[in-house]
Amino acid sequence: MIPRYQLGERATFSFQIDASQTPVSPSSAPTLRIYNGSGTKIKELTIPPLDTDNVTGLFQHFVPLNDNFVVGVYSWRASATVAGADWVAEGMFEIVAGGGQDGAVTSLFFLDNPAVSHLLYQVDGDDGVLLARNPRI
Amino acid sequence: MPKTFAQSESGVVYIADGFNAVQRWDGNTSALETAGVAPPATAVVIAGSGSGSISGTYTAYQRFVDRFGNFSNLCPISNTLTVAGVLQIDYSSVDIPTSSQVVSRQILRNASGNTSSYYLDVDTTDLTSTTFTSTKTDATLTAQTLVPITDSEGNDLAATRYTVPPDDMPLLLMANGRMLMAGEALYSQGAIQITQSSATVQGIGTNWTSVMAGRYLTVENETRSPALISSVDTNTQTLTLSAVWPGRTYAFVGHGIRADVDRRRGVQWSEAGLPEAVPPLSLLNVARAGGVGDLTGMFRVGSLVYLTEASRTHTFSFVNNPALSDAGGDGQVFLSGYRGCVNQRCVVIVEDVAYMLDQQGVYAFRAGGSEPLSSNVQDLFDERGDYDYRIRWEHSVFFHGVHDVAQELIRFFVCLDHRWYPQHCLCFDYRQQRWWLEAYPFPICSSCSGQIEGRPVVFLGSSGGRVFVLGAGALDGVDSHDDGTLSGTVTSAGIQTLTDSAAVFDTMALPGYGVTITAGTGKGQTRIITSVTTTALTVMVPWTTALDTTSTYQIGGISFQWKSGVFRYAAAEKSNVRELDLMGLSGDDGKADLRLYIDRSATPFKWGVSAVNQGVRTTRNNADAVLDLSRADGNWQMRLDGLRQGNMDGPKFVEAEIAGVQGVDPVEFYELNLSGITQ
Fold first, then answer.
1. ipTM above threshold 0.90
2. How far apart are CA B506 and CA A114, in angstroms?
3. Residues of chain A contacting residue B465, judged by C-beta atoms under 8 Å apart
4. Phi, psi for residue B396 in degrees, rounded to 5
5. Ranges under pLDDT 70 in chain B
């Protein structure tokens, strides 16, 4: 089963680079490319190491599923160079309905003014702050 | 990094996170604005022309004004002009504001020979011209508004007084008419590629912001001094250091970006009544009061401000000037206790008591000292213990607490697993001194107290941009009046689907919310709905136990579980009365089961007979005694008669458990009586 996320979540990309099934450190940080269902590349980024002190070749990154993404199936390909040879990993993930591109509401503030009250909330999709007026159930 | 909010006495909200400029919102604009007014960058050029009566030696400044009347600092001083009998003063190279928040510009000029008092010479809403003229003589100039540059003791009143709030301090607090800022925003996401003898550093998985220029880069495993960052290219995620990197070359390595060491334990404050004017010299270092770690939080109780570290709390008091006495102020800072707080959001103030979460547990902090509160749930804080639940501190930056005013509860939302955001909370009834644990079907990333139509409520921030009201309705997320069928019996099911041919599901409202199997095969499973047709639900994760036509479901159902302590059966030589009597309130909806655990068994006792009696239905070889929640009297009883002979083997201990799923009608149990026990 491929990993499933909702919009606004962070897709986890985690892999350990190896040569002949032995973890190795690549010559540079691996590149991750994400493609939509039509094969169009929609994101390319380099992936940081997770724990260089204790684990060789382990890389991990959390990609926010923001307005670059819609509901659907995506494929990804990570690549690096190890001792002059190519290393590649591939996979897929699916974004299912029920989320929101804004991402998670990571901070909230209730502003109570005499005439009108507001909720100010920070979302992690683009690190912006949104405003909502007169909150209701 | 969660942002911090603080509201000024005038109602303006300020927002900080340590990685971006402080923002403000006055409740009227459609978007946030940058707090403070950045000063003109270049000096005005001053000259005289024509023939007239202006004579003397002059200098000038320019400053900007925003729509709130906030001033910027002054631009650099102009050239010195000495004239005799000119008609007018000509200003040129007058800087143009780049911020849309600036609504006017002021040019200040001194009266001849007086270098400490300047007067408003030009006050204009013209934001585009770079030249202005003035025909004011000293006599007319000194009749204008006086703008003192320094006070009688030589203290600055204009040059740096209106410095914009610092962008590197993530903690905000309004106290005694001033905005206080504190703490350090350490950035360590991602990694860097750094090359020996190069000043360029490439980010890997970073999200650096432009305000990081002027801060310091530390490189993992490198003991050399941090490198000063001179600029940041946010598009390419590239840093330029002020000098070439003398250390080793790394293709990828961990890093940290921090403020100057003096600021990490520092507190800054604004001018009184001017929250957007934060002079740079208004800095106090908590290390002077015995501080040993970074500041994690800042809160106020009454007139006193408290500063927390991970394991310390300091009191910070002031009346007029927060600076310490040796800096000319009346401020005092002193160590108040050896417990701290995990972050700014894990301080909940109720009736002048601060309830705080640190790595030792939850405690109440008062002026007289601290009182540990969480002994009943202390296993959660034991990092060495082998418990089902344990607080994971990796993402403690996202922990938060909130006061539920209506319920008189305090909730601390924490991670009990390796998820990014909290999905559990420690709930404390501060009147009854009781604890329990709550699990949520969605991440609860933030919270705050508020009001809806005058009623106190708690708002919870979640994934997908959703904000929930805690306790509004009996179901999680869905509306029992508008969202179609919410409960029923499964007519068919697949590995990831549930079909109820009699249902009319709301295809738009339900994705993203939970569905719980409340009875029958697969009971107890909860899944998140991902897509909906009129009669079928698709869920995100396959069912662990396949459903069949005995399975019933509740959408948005809130699961609950309560388990008693261990009680001992009374010793008796003959069978005696053992009775369980449960009192509660319920409507027609919802499901609840009663289970007994005998002799400390990890698995519940399976009933020996199938029977229905006093609102309780048992099934032979099944552990769940199903409560009929439609009983009007809200009373359920079970006879469990038996005996426990002395010195003979037999049941000795009993525990009772009630668990179920709430439906549209709230389920409430308030009394359980066990007869035939001794303790």
1. no
2. 37
3. 8, 100-105, 123, 125, 130
4. -65, -15
5. 288-291, 385-386, 573, 643-649, 679
